Amino acid sequence: MSDKKVSAIKISKPERLFNLTCALLYTTQGLTKNEILRSVPGYEGEYSEGGDNSSLERKFERDKASLLHNGIQLEVTIPAHEDENNQVTVYSIKRESFYWPKNVKFTPRQMALLNLAAEAWVGGSLSTAASRGITKLRAMGAIGEDSDIVGIAPRIQASDPSFRDLNNAISDHQVVNFDYRNPKTGEILTRTLQPWILQKVAGQWLVMGFDELRDLPRNFMLRRIVSKVTTAKPARTFTPPSLEQIAATVAELDALAEKQVAKIQVNRDSEAWFRYELDLQGNGSSNEVSIHYHDIYVLAEQLREYAGEITVLKPEALIQLVRAGFEKVANDHV
Amino acid sequence: MSDQIRLDDSDRYNLMLALTGLLVQGDEYEVQELAQRFEVSKEEIVKAVKNIGYMDMAHFENPDRYEVDYDALDEGYVRISYNIENVVEDVPRLSSRQASALAAGLVYLSSLPGLAENEEILELQGILATGDSRGNTPEVIVQPGSKDADLLIIRQAIKLGRAISCDYLNLKGEMRIGRVIEPLRIDLRGELIYLKGWCPENSDVRSFRVDRMRNALMTEVEISKAARSAELDDEVYHSSETDTLVTIEVDPEAFSLMVDFRPVEEPESVSQYVKRFKILVGDVRNLGRIVSRFGGAARVVAPDSAKVAVREFALKAIGELKPTQPKDAE
Q: Does residue A255 belong to any structural domain of this protein?
């Protein structure tokens, strides 16, 4: 039995991707698209010499995206003397970008923490990403065991429908559009954003990015996005921000919370009293609490939960907002 | 722990890369052992190993391949050898998204006091960043929430299998002193931390909010057999037969309600961005607080008793109605 003609057997997509990965690692000069389609198991069985290979080419394009999403950096080069001819673009994978740096090892305790971190994501693309990431780490030696890390079930909810699309756009550096409701006026505007990162601040998911309408870095709360997140037309990519740019924008947000302070008065021994841990402040403690906030609308929401237990003292805008919310609810339920 | 996760094509490809990275180190493993390590079924492991063996470079004038010992595989052992160079020879890096999902999960864990030191989290994040194929720009950041000292005692008690006693503020606003709970699991849910524990009083599993707990103490009492064999699920609230079916409508600003209260059926779209769903509620008076919070982005559609409860809560809050006493279970 010759084991040459395995290609007569149907080759599954995971197998094809694996063969492609090995071929691109193995090649020294790189492979052209035609060389790949002609030689890599999973394509070569369907390749027609001199015929129409357009569906096979589309398959290759999809596979390239799969590799990228798995963290594999494709080297795409066009030999200098032939830069006009797309057919001679050659593909390869640089080995130094492919493997984990040598000597990186995890202890059993570290693996246990990482396992738990991966478990924290519930549903959505990050749960998939975390579980694929942890699969790779599990190949690195240690098995996650630590008696200290038992009986914990973390769950990060990323339920906003826009979460997945923004996350993909961040990975692919795609400019996106979405409709955003201004919490103050209720007005809906279409925004164009270069999305940088997703961030959970004070319980709210934000997307931080460069707002092309305002020409400034801005934060958008995912729950105020009232449309699908779509790729800008025509599709275009942006240069990803530097770590410094991200850090500066995060710092700006923190500075905002530092500056914005609300004051409330809490009824003794109410639920809010415990929520704000006033019972732990010792006898004769004040019944006033100062709260730093990022977003006055989110704070108003949180405070409405303690209706009857607290009085908002300042700022005036917050007092109005809490009250207006209750009035709207009362009117909605007649 | 389980092998229930269904793999798709990309997961299988990812598993092949990881498995190859492990197996090329030359050790022999039991199929069972690998299934446990990667948390997949034994069938998935066997399939992946076979597929690694089918990798074929004949067209590149290289007849070498990963040699799988198929006889051993039939008997439940995995061993491969290889003589080609420059194929998958070690564990591949993570994608930025994979690395940042794990890194953000770690930050979230650090909100649990005493679980991991900040330095430990930072060190791990550093390692993840070095293994990120695109450099270390994070895609997701989760800022940790509040901390609570009672959690340290609870964690210790879970580890040692002992009951705790604590004071607990129930939803009626009453502080119960010296309540005994057999702690089973700590559930981190968004901003809140719950203790899932066996309540000997009710002979049932209950969720307790740790922020409503005070003066937790570990007792000498070992947790009971009933507690140890109790089934733990992901729900924080359990409905009962006397619950009322309530229909709620939400704008995107209040979609989180659909996650917090598992709807009894798939939510339906009312208009492009308004959804409607049904939940079971123990006491409709509790809805006032839950719905009013959103200041209009959530609305009760039916039944009337629930609508009245919400309206009364909102009116009371602005001082246009005399207070009534809401109640709840735990």
A: no
Minimal Cα–Cα distance from A244 to chain B, Å? 10
**CB count, 10 Å around CB of A267?**
15
Which of B16, B102, B175 lies closest to A130 in CB terms? Answer: B102
Measure in Å the smallest separation between the Cα of A27 and chain B Cα atoms.
Answer: 8
B95 with A27: Cβ contact below 8 A: no
The residue of B289, B293, B310, B327 whose CB has the most chain A CBs within 10 angstroms, and thus the best one to mutate to test that interface, is: B293
Query: What CATH code is assigned to B244-317?
Result: 3.30.70
Would an 8 Å CB–CB cutoff place A209 in contact with chain B? Answer: no
Print the domain residue range for A326.
Answer: 261-332
Q: Which pLDDT tens digit goes with each residue over B153-170?
A: 888 898 889 999 998 887
CA distances from A152 to A70, A149, B176 (A): 29, 7, 25
The complex's ipTM?
0.76
Six-digit token pair at A118?
């991966």
Q: Which tens digit of pLDDT belongs to each residue from A11-23?
A: 899 999 999 999 9
CB B310 within 8 A of CB A333: yes
CB pairs A-B closer than 8 Å: 384
Question: Do A142 and A180 lie in a common domain?
Answer: no
Q: Is domain B150-228 classified as CATH 2.60.40?
A: no
Q: Choose the CATH number for B9-82 among 3.40.50, 1.10.10, 2.60.40, 3.30.70.
A: 1.10.10
Shortest Cα–Cα distance, A14 to chain B (Å): 4
Return d(Cα A303, Cα A311) in angstroms, integer: 9
Q: Are residues A143 and A190 in the same domain?
A: no
Q: For residue A68, give the H/E element and its range.
A: helix A54-69
